[in-house]
Amino acid sequence: MKRTLLMTLMLVFTLGLMAQNTAPQAGQGKKPAQIKFDKTTHDFGDFSEKNPVQTYNFTFTNIGDEPLVINQALAACGCTVPKYTKEPILPGEKGEIKVTYNGEGQWPGHIRKSVTVYCNGEVPMTRLYITGNLKKAE
């Protein structure tokens, strides 16, 4: 009797575990959030020390099926400042990352700066670049 009861309990427990594993998962069949930038590099071209502050808005679209959240946007140096959309971006919607470069006090010449974007997307990290040529004021 004890043996039959023990075997029955083990069978019920095993079937319960198997049922949990076959239950549909939340979000199953949906693509995770996915960030797609219109472009990842912007060239300011030539600009003068007289006008050292340059700004560009990188735009992106969430091409996934889940909301996209930008967790962080980090510049490689203090002369570059990113500002980004804080609210979740719904599927099919657009957002932007505004990158401002301040060349005041910098050496004239070619610049190449990066901003690293972290998000909850299928690809969790994207690097954006700004380039240009800071000309000496004459």
Keywords:
single chain; 138 residues; alpha+beta; 4-stranded antiparallel β-sheet; 4-stranded mixed β-sheet; 1 helix; 15% helix; elongated
Structural class: alpha+beta
Uncertain spans? 19-26
Number of strands: 8
Helix content percent band:
10-25%
Give the strand content.
over 45%
Question: Reading side by side through the largest sheet, how are the strands ordered?
Answer: 1-3-6-5
Average pLDDT number? 87
Distance between the termini: 100 Å
What is the count of DSSP helices, taking H or I runs of 4+ residues? 1
Instruction: State the order of secondary-structure elements, H for helix, E for strand.
Output: HEEEEEEEE
Largest sheet: 4 strands, antiparallel
Task: State Rg.
Answer: 25 Å
CA-based shape: elongated
Provide structural commentary.
The chain has one helix at 2-22, and strands at residues 35-37, 41-48, 53-62, 70-75, 80-84, 94-102, 109-119, 125-135. The longest helix has 21 residues, at 2-22. The chain has 1 helix and 8 strands. Strand 7 (109-119) and strand 8 (125-135) form a beta hairpin. It has a 4-stranded antiparallel beta sheet with strand order 1-3-6-5, with no helix packed on it. Strands 2-8-7-4 form a 4-stranded mixed beta sheet, with no helix packed on it. With 138 residues, the protein is an alpha+beta fold. The protein is elongated and about 100 Å long.
Task: Give a short summary of the structure.
With 138 residues, the protein is α+β, with helices and mostly antiparallel strands. It has one helix at 2-22; strands spanning 35-37, 41-48, 53-62, 70-75, 80-84, 94-102, 109-119, 125-135.
